[in-house]
Structures are given as structure tokens and as C-alpha cells.
Amino acid sequence: MSSNRLLIVLSGPSGVGKDALLRRMKEQKYPFHYVVTVTSRPRREGERDGVDYRFVSQREFQQMIDNGELLEWANVYGNYYGVPRKEISQALSKGKDVIVKVDVQGAATIKRILPQAVCIFLRPPSMEELERRLRQRHSESAKDLALRLQKAEEEMKSLPLFDHVLTSYQGKLDEAISQIQSIVAAEKRQVKPRVVEL
After folding, report:
1. Which domains does the chain have, with CATH numbers?
2. What mean pLDDT comes out for the span 78-107?
3. How confident is the model at residue 2, as a pLDDT?
4. Start-to-end CA span in the chain (Å)
5. How far is CA 157 from CA 63, 114, 146, 154, in A?
6. What pLDDT, on a 0 to 100 scale, did the predictor assign at position 33?
7. Which residues, at least 6 apart from 98, have a Cβ–Cβ distance to it below 8 Å?
8. What is the pairing mode between strands 38-39 and 79-84?
9. Which one, of 95, 76, 197, 68, lies nearest residue 147 by Cα?
């Protein structure tokens, strides 16, 4: 078992490309354990339960909170999202590096609980570009879109909480993946490795 297995926390504003980046990493068989976030939000077209998210009812989500099954959880835009603790601890105990996608609030919580986590912020090239990407999704009302953009402005102020910042350029996923690989390689070469204990 590797003693310097890493917990990578990927975060950034809604619409910045976190899901697309992780999908590409999985397709290219990057050797991480990809944590499946639990959510109470309705499934979007094309999403698969247990792959994109683990979809549960609000009641089931509340039970998970009550049972201490979540490393962190939050109410985002009226829906609950959470990171299952057991999934992370099992993967780490098998010597695997783990990558988890959370919102900025979730990243801050994980960093507080596990300061050894490597937190990466994925930012858009500009707020105008982020707005364009959100509009292309056609999954939010005008009111929700405005709310997400306002929240993104706030989240951009959280950069000092993160260990690394990457810019997500349209059509350049492989470049971002290469940067993540470099971050992981550099972290593995640290004299004092980050040892994550859950």
C-alpha cells in the first residue's frame, strides 16, 4: 500500500467543466478512484445512477446525514449533495489515489477536516465564457442562471483556500488533465508526503 496516496478535491463554479474533465479522465483510464457524489436532485437527461451521481430521495439523504455516512454535504440550489465517507476510506485503504468533485463550500469543508487533501480549483477563462457555457446547457431557468453566475463570482474569491488553480479552456480538456497529472506527480515527490487518514 502506498503511504502517500492522495485525496484530490476538484472544485470550481457550476458550468466550468468539472464533469467533462472527469469523464475524459475516466475514458482515458487515469488510475484514480472516482468518488460518486450522492445527490437528492433529479437526474438530468443522459445521467446514470451510480456513474454520474448516486441519486437518492431527500429522506434517504437525511438518513445518510444522521448516520454520519457523509464526509461533507451541502444544500446547493435547493438540492443536497454529499461525499460518501466509506467510499473514500475504502479506496485509500487499497492504496488508490482518490479524486472527488465538490462545490467550493464542500472543498473548504473537506480541507478543514482533512488538511492533507490536495485541492484544485478549476476556473473559467472569463465570467463571460462561463455564462456562455451555462446558457449552452439549457438546464437552468433565467433566474437560476443569474443565481449560478452570482455564486460563481463569490466562489472566485475563494481561490486562496486552494493548493492549485487551473483554467478550463473550451476544447482543451487534455491540457487540463496533463496539468492534474503534473500536480499529482509533484505531490508524490514531496519530502513530507500528504498522508490522508479517515
Report:
1. 7-188 (3.40.50.300)
2. 93
3. 44
4. 15
5. 33, 21, 18, 6
6. 96
7. 5, 6, 7, 8, 32, 33, 35, 88, 91, 92
8. antiparallel
9. 76
With cut-offs at 50, 70 and 90, classify the pLDDT of residue 1: very low
Cell of 143: 433566474
Q: Is the pLDDT of residue 122 over 90?
A: yes
Kindly report each contact of residues 49-58 with a partner whose C-beta sits within 8 Å and lies 24 or more positions away, as own/partner.
52/19, 54/84
Angle between helices 18-27 and 173-188 (to 10 degrees): 80
Q: What is the 3-state secondary structure (H, E, C) of the chain?
A: CCCCCCEEEEECCCCCCHHHHHHHHHHCCCCEEECCCEECCCCCCCCCECCCEEECCHHHHHHHHHCCCEEEEEEECCEEEEEEHHHHHHHHHCCCEEEEECCHHHHHHHHHHCCCCEEEEEECCCHHHHHHHHHHHCCCCHHHHHHHHHHHHHHHHHHHHCCEEEECCCCCHHHHHHHHHHHHHHHHCCCCCCCCCC
Residue 80's CB is within 10 A of a number of other CB atoms, namely 21
Half-sphere exposure of 193 (CA within 13 A, CB side): 14
User: Which pTM value belongs to this model?
Assistant: 0.86
Nearest-angstrom CA–CA distance, 40 and 79: 6
Cell numbers at 194, concatenated: 500528504
